[in-house]
Amino acid sequence: MSIKLGDTAPDFNAESSLGTINFYDYLGDSWGILFSHPADYTPVCTTELGKTAHLKPEFDKRNTKVLALSVDGIENHKGWISDINETQNTEVEFPIIADENRKVSELYDFIHPNASATLTIRSLLIIDPNKKVRLIITYPASTGRNFTEILRVLDSLQLVDGYGIATPVDWQEGDDVIIPPAVSQEDAEKKFTKGVKVVKPYLRYTPQPDL
């Protein structure tokens, strides 16, 4: 199954390091991040899960729950979590799916046969509270993900949903945002009371509205 932006994220039941979970129940009304890992006890994945655990306060602030996955079993996960906690000086509190039968991996297209016929690639989805897929990023197994970028995209998506804006290249929290061309100049001046900077009729900026 190929999942694209705007699709409804498929629901599933799975065994995890925290017991049996239902994906939709786990997310509730939160945003969600589902990310796959090639295997337990691998160095790049160890650093990624450690970083994710360290970022828990940031995800909490953004009403976002994380859920990891690999095709190894529960006992492997538990042993690996102990290693992650030790080597990355953290506490992994989010579930790691034990997808031994590849059910979830196939549902989310996490196995790319030309990369590996059995192991999941390093893929990540951001899912909004309506269970719609809003971001898909896929990395090769050898390259660790940039979680600063993932937080940046979360901030952008939540601003987009809350205020009907867009974010420009290299946007960071606190930078000016873009007014979409579909919003008339008259409506823009009414809606964005902090000011409208017109560079071109189709390129207009306003200060970040939630600051």
Percentage beta strand: 15-25%
**Helical content, roughly?**
25-40%
Span between N and C termini? 40 Å
Radius of gyration: 19 Å
Number of helices: 7
Largest sheet: 5 strands, mixed
- Helix and strand string, N-terminal first? EEHEHHEHEHEEHEHEE
Q: What average pLDDT do the residues reach?
A: 92
Q: How are the elements arranged and paired?
A:
Blueprint: E1 13-16, E2 19-22, H1 23-27, E3 31-36, H2 43-54, H3 56-61, E4 64-70, H4 74-88, E5 96-98, H5 103-107, E6 122-127, E7 133-139, H6 147-163, E8 177-179, H7 185-191, E9 197-200, E10 203-206
Parallel strand pairs: 3-4, 4-5
Antiparallel strand pairs: 1-2, 3-6, 6-7, 8-10, 9-10
Helix pairs in contact: 2-4
Task: Give an overview in words.
One of its GO terms (molecular function) is peroxiredoxin activity. With 211 residues, this protein is of the alpha+beta class. It has 2 domains: 7-145, Glutaredoxin, CATH 3.40.30; 164-207, Antioxidant, Horf6, Chain A, domain2 (Antioxidant, Horf6, Chain A, domain 2, 2-Layer Sandwich), CATH 3.30.1020. Helix content is 32%, strand content 23%. The chain has 7 helices and 10 strands. It has helices spanning 23-27, 43-54, 56-61, 74-88, 103-107, 147-163, 185-191; strands spanning 13-16, 19-22, 31-36, 64-70, 96-98, 122-127, 133-139, 177-179, 197-200, 203-206. A 5-stranded mixed beta sheet has the order 5-4-3-6-7. Strands 8-10-9 form a 3-stranded antiparallel beta sheet, with no helix packed on it. β4 (64-70), α4 and β5 (96-98) form a beta-alpha-beta unit. α2 (43-54) crosses α4 (74-88). The protein starts with 12 loop residues before the first strand and ends in a 5-residue tail after the last strand. The mean pLDDT is 92.
